[in-house]
């Protein structure tokens, strides 16, 4: 193995730059040449790649987003598109590919091994934390911290104005961000998949809370479970209390990565380069119980429904502490 390439694919997340930096510098340390592909699989198909050096990744460790850009590629879903991508890699004499991305990107990488003879290693980079074989994906911890920071600020205005707030957080139908910000932000209620969303019960709780002197009330809604605006309107209608809806949205994708995300990215980048050198392919680098391990790309995606199940312990504590 002499030359490898690295790309980001799918949704962006904080810490992707830290992962690129690690792949580039570890590859150079191991005497490999390394190319950066711009705009994910689309860039690969178009031959949009260039050699990277240690200085190419200077001062990016702390920066959100990805200097390589990321994209979703319809063309890569076709055999024709993947064959073009394989030709580009062949032309540039690249024999190892590191894909930083989520579930979809790994499905694509797994299929691509049928179309290209080189080695492929995935690094889990997504705020959704929905990949099996790693306790955390790069970006998830920062996304929770960003959402929590916003919720703490909403709590200030919520208490001052004696209002109720319904706050929607990201998660693509997954409870990861919602249950964590619910517990750490002291939310009064959390609406997540796999739980019953009972508006009557919620409104009775709010009315009872007001009687006890509880003046602020924050309800976290996980993206896809309900519309924050609709929930807020229903609460106003049923309780008569002023209720506002806030959708945090893409702010959760950006920002400087947390210490945990920088650590994960740096370790996973190094492990990805080592895995390629050892001849591994069709695998993802994961970290479980602080140990780096390799997991099949197929397994990492296929078993993700198990991973994204609601953590009942977190949910139950949130409810108890909200009284
Ligand atoms: P995130 O979870 O952050 O959104 P992701 O990697 O899951 O990231 P997707 O949009 O699902 O994001 O997938 C990224 C890209 O991976 C797709 O645009 C497509 O190019 C490729 N891909 C996904 N599934 C397949 C597949 N079955 N075959 C080939 N390529 C695929």
Can you describe this structure?
- The strands form two sheets. Strands 3-2-1-4-5-10-11 form a seven-stranded mixed beta sheet, sandwiched between helices.
- α5 packs across α6 and α7 packs across α8.
- It is an alpha/beta fold and 323 residues long.
Furnish the topology, listing elements before pairings:
Layout: E1 3-8, H1 16-29, E2 33-37, H2 40-46, E3 49-52, H3 79-91, E4 96-101, H4 103-112, E5 119-124, H5 140-161, E6 164-169, H6 176-184, E7 189-191, H7 199-212, E8 217-222, H8 228-239, E9 243-247, H9 259-277, E10 283-288, E11 291-296, H10 297-302, H11 304-307, H12 312-321
Adenosine-5'-triphosphate is lined by residues 9-11, 41, 72-73, 76-77, 101-105, 107-108, 111, 126, 128.
Q: Output the CATH topology of the largest domain.
A: Rossmann fold
Bound molecules: adenosine-5'-triphosphate
Give helix and strand order, one letter per element, not per position. Answer: EHEHEHEHEHEHEHEHEHEEHHH
Overall radius of gyration: 22 Å
Hey, roughly how much beta strand do the residues contain? 15-25%
Largest sheet: 7 strands, mixed
3D shape:
elongated
Kindly, what is the distance between the CA atoms of the first and last residues, rounded to a whole number of angstroms?
A: 60 Å
Helix content: 40-55%
Strand order, largest beta sheet: 3-2-1-4-5-10-11
In short:
This protein has 323 residues and is an alpha/beta fold.
Key attributes of the depicted protein:
Rossmann fold, 323 residues, 18% strand, elongated, binds adenosine-5'-triphosphate, 2 domains, four-stranded parallel β-sheet, seven-stranded mixed β-sheet, 12 helices, alpha/beta, 43% helix
